[in-house]
Write a structure and sequence with these properties.
Two copies of one chain form a homodimer. Chain A starts with 10 loop residues before the first helix and ends in a 5-residue tail after the last strand. By secondary structure, the first copy, chain A, is an alpha/beta fold. In chain A, strand 5, helix 9 (196-213) and strand 6 (219-223) form a beta-alpha-beta unit. Chain A has helices spanning 11-18, 22-30, 39-52, 58-65, 82-96, 114-119, 134-142, 163-179, 196-213, 227-239, 250-262, 296-312, and strands at 70-76, 101-107, 125-128, 147-150, 185-190, 219-223, 244-247, 272-276, 290-294, 325-328. Chain A has three domains: 11-56, Orthogonal Bundle (434 Repressor (Amino-terminal Domain)); 68-162 and 298-321, 3-Layer(aba) Sandwich (Rossmann fold); 163-295, 3-Layer(aba) Sandwich (Rossmann fold). The longest helix of chain A is centred in the middle third of the chain and has 18 residues, at 196-213. In chain A, strands 6-5-7-8-9-10 form a six-stranded mixed sheet, sandwiched between helices. Chain A has a four-stranded parallel sheet with strand order 2-1-3-4, sandwiched between helices. Chain A binds a DNA duplex (30 and 30 nucleotides) through helix 2 and helix 4.
Chain lengths: 333, 333
DNA sequence: CTACCTTACTGACACGCGCAAGTTACACGT
DNA sequence: ACGTGTAACTTGCGCGTGTCAGTAAGGTAG
């Protein structure tokens, strides 16, 4: 390790040290094909680089090649649970295996516009959870960002990769409750407005499942994460002779269990409850929570494949099958 | 918006459109001081840039200036809860207010080395949760990364910004249990090895608090997130006449409540339980969970100030006071 | 009329890199 | 002896910026 005098170590330094030209150094370090380099020279370059602690400048490389190998993920300020965390982790490994660097940036509504962000990164692709405005998309195209993938959203313009699997989640919930003998269903909608993008497709899934099974449409109620409020919702459902409720997620489901408890009632006898996500505390509840899980690994793999295809300009792969969503049956439904 | 023929819009295009030189365009767009530019010319540049949808190349800018305005956060594959999520979100806004772009990269042990990551980004600073190896730090210095901030870790070499506030958390737990009349305490250590970096300082805080209060050292047990296992732990504590337990976090605390339930017992009468984090479901538990909360906003502000100071080469600010950690008293302790 | 300052610009360089094209030196075939 | 081919290199360009060092025009002082 050389004593660095403040200056950055460049490939020119390595070349000088090895007594070669900069081009040769570049060829060796990048394993450029169709170049014949004797083993001795190669070693000379490698040791020189190691000695000086050389590492190429990402900026220069990006400038020269016109595109970086960074994939930028714009993450809204959702109360992110371990499932989204797992998805992002899996996505990172999946993209890393394909030579792409995955990077996340939180997007906060009041903050500076998203434009500022990708300008400072110049990513190869952008993965947006929320939908982007048309002007943003146009600007990104102009700035050389290869492409954009939206995951959820209301418009029909952008392809929404996660939408169908979210619908599938709602569908599984309804089907499980129907299979256990319930004919009148409720839906517990989250209180947090930021979760709308997830909640809508899930509710949509429940609705279509009910329609297909010949059941009445679900009775939807907003359920805050608070025992008394949840108790009020429980009362109304029971007044309407609702036997089973699909909760937006496990937290809402746990609120319902607390609401039942306030009335001195319990799932599943008085009201069957099914959640989503299988968070760690789900199995610790009283009764243990029945819930729907998604194989985040499979989702991540598909998302990674989509990004890679989009960057390479190839057609996008088919979405994963419906078998990635499964019911974990415990005590509450 | 001009119809872009694939090519990137550069400042040269803007200059041509405005009938000026590239230098003048640069001066206008960067508000370079000590340059006299008449208002009319300035407007000419601005409208041309807007018309063409010009946005400067981050890569070129970084190459020229030698440093980017990106702060890279290396996030280990911890099961990240909403608290860490909130911390990251707050950090992002705090840094954005200071002109820095905050970006997160998940670090997975088996994956490629961290070196690959910052090479692809060239950040101005790196914020590492886990400790970095000395060779990594040296390499980063050499590559022009201004500096490094470690948050947690075992060595004494790097400053650990979060360490003290984590100790403070454990301290508050112990003090609350002592204040409610418990003299023999237990500590519920998490099962997940990845949480060690958080668990150690918290336990350390409990230990020192016990010592200062003249109590016996806490009886430490690993508690998996599973009712039967938790029940076994509960039994052992009660056999040792332990009256109150500090849980690593709310999830572990909820496991203890489930363990008590298996014995037909309940908090706080049979065993007082106090958690950490105040996750949403904490208030929904039976009994509602008493827990310790940290003001993530204040922590984020301090971290942001530290990063800014480090990038600017100024002395680091003082850590926040101990008042950022508070007890939320509910039913369980 | 000359000397000098200010205004409003422009020309040119360097940042570090990848890669196309060019240059030796030497072996081989005829 | 002469072209041809290949191994092992090197020279040089341009990616898009920010900025230093000019420079021509116009005004003002002496």
């Amino acid at each position: 390790m050389a004593a660095t005098p403040g200056r950055r170590v460049t490939s020119a330094d390595v070349a000088r040290q090895a007594g070669l030209s900069r081009a040769t150094v570049s060829y060796v370090l990048n394993n450029t094909p169709h170049q014949s380099i004797p083993e001795e020279t190669r070693q000379r370059v490698l040791t020189a680089a190691a000695q000086l602690g050389y590492s190429p400048s990402a900026a220069a490389r990006a400038l020269r090649s016109g595109r970086s190998d960074v994939v930028l993920c714009l993450l809204p300020d959702w109360p992110v649970g371990p499932e989204v965390g797992a998805l992002l982790t899996n996505l990172s490994t999946a993209l890393a295996a394909r030579g792409l660097t995955f990077v996340i940036h939180p997007v906060i509504p009041g903050d500076r516009p998203v434009a500022e962000i990708w300008k400072a990164i110049t990513p190869a692709a952008v993965l947006a959870f929320e939908e982007l405005s048309d002007s943003d998309v146009a600007a990104m195209r102009g700035a050389g960002v290869a492409s954009v993938v939206a995951l959820l959203g209301s418009s029909r313009r952008q392809r929404r990769e996660l939408e169908v699997s979210q619908q599938r989640v709602g569908r599984m919930q309804a089907e499980h409750l129907a299979a256990t003998g319930h004919t009148r269903l409720g839906y517990a909608y989250p209180d947090d407005a930021r979760l709308r993008h997830f909640a809508e497709p899930r509710l949509e899934g429940v609705r279509t499942a009910c329609a297909e099974l010949g059941l009445d449409a679900p009775l939807v109620q907003v359920v805050p994460l608070d025992a008394p409020d949840a108790a009020a919702a429980v009362r109304r459902w029971r007044d309407n002779r609702i036997g089973g409720v699909c909760a937006y997620n496990d937290e809402v489901a746990l609120a319902l269990l607390a609401g039942l408890r306030e009335h001195g009632l319990a799932a599943p006898a008085d009201l069957a409850v099914i959640g989503v996500d299988d968070i760690p505390v789900a199995r610790l509840a009283d009764p243990p929570l029945t819930t729907v899980t998604t194989d985040q690994n499979a989702v991540a793999a598909h998302l990674a494949a989509t990004v890679v295809a989009v960057v390479a300009g190839e057609p996008q792969p088919r979405p994963p099958g419906s078998d990635i969503v499964t019911v974990t049956r415990r005590g509450s439904a």
